[in-house]
Design brief:
Elements: H1 3-9, E1 10-14, H2 15-36, H3 53-80, E2 89-93, H4 94-132, H5 143-171, H6 181-184
Helix pairs in contact: 2-3, 4-5
């Protein structure tokens, strides 16, 4: 693969900028979700913690740890600005990032419509197919390579979905929009 083809798929990002964007993005998303927990239904019984307890605890911990980390990254970036050590970069696969971001944002919205089982297997298969197989140039891609990558990814996705179903739905009794597994797996 030539440098021109490689640069079309990846971008060079400064490490300090990437850290700051990643921490800031996660922190902003966690804060938005924390604010969303205030729209949850009130507790059903007196003394019952309600549906918002665990999301608020987890998001509060993320925010509590994220604010000092963001401040530290911001101070480090300002201190390094103009210094010779600020030139360290890393490559980011823009296409892969956009696929992953689209799946992460689409997953919770599609759960009620296509169910936990179908959406989990479909999204994990897409993610695994693009990542489990090593880099292959366009000239070498064959239907056999695509089929093998899809089959391997689908098998891993089904196992992962069954494990998630067992942990969350069966063991933890989390209410999920399931479509067909309760017909086959009951306890």
């Amino acid at each position: 693969m030539t440098d021109r083809e490689d640069s079309a798929k990846t971008r060079q990002i400064l490490v300090s900028t990437g850290d700051l964007i990643a921490v800031g993005g996660v922190l902003a998303f966690a804060f938005a979700l924390f604010l969303h927990t205030f729209s949850f239904a009130p507790p059903m019984l007196p003394g019952y913690p309600g549906d918002d307890l665990f999301p608020r605890l987890i998001l509060g911990l993320v925010i509590l740890c994220g604010v000092p980390l963001f401040a530290r990254r911001l101070v480090e970036r300002r201190a390094r600005r103009g210094a010779a050590g600020d030139g360290e970069t890393f490559d980011i696969d823009v296409g892969g990032f956009l696929i992953t971001a689209a799946i992460v944002f689409a997953f919770p919205f599609l759960l009620p419509y296509i169910g936990f089982e179908i959406s989990t297997v479909a999204f994990l298969t897409i993610l695994f197919t693009t990542r489990l197989h090593g880099p292959v140039s366009a000239e070498v891609v064959t239907p056999a390579i695509i089929g093998a990558a899809l089959l391997k990814s689908a098998a891993i996705s089904v196992v992962a979905m069954l494990a998630l179903y067992a942990v969350f739905v069966i063991l933890l009794k989390v209410s999920m929009p399931v479509m067909f597994l309760p017909k086959f797996i009951q306890f």
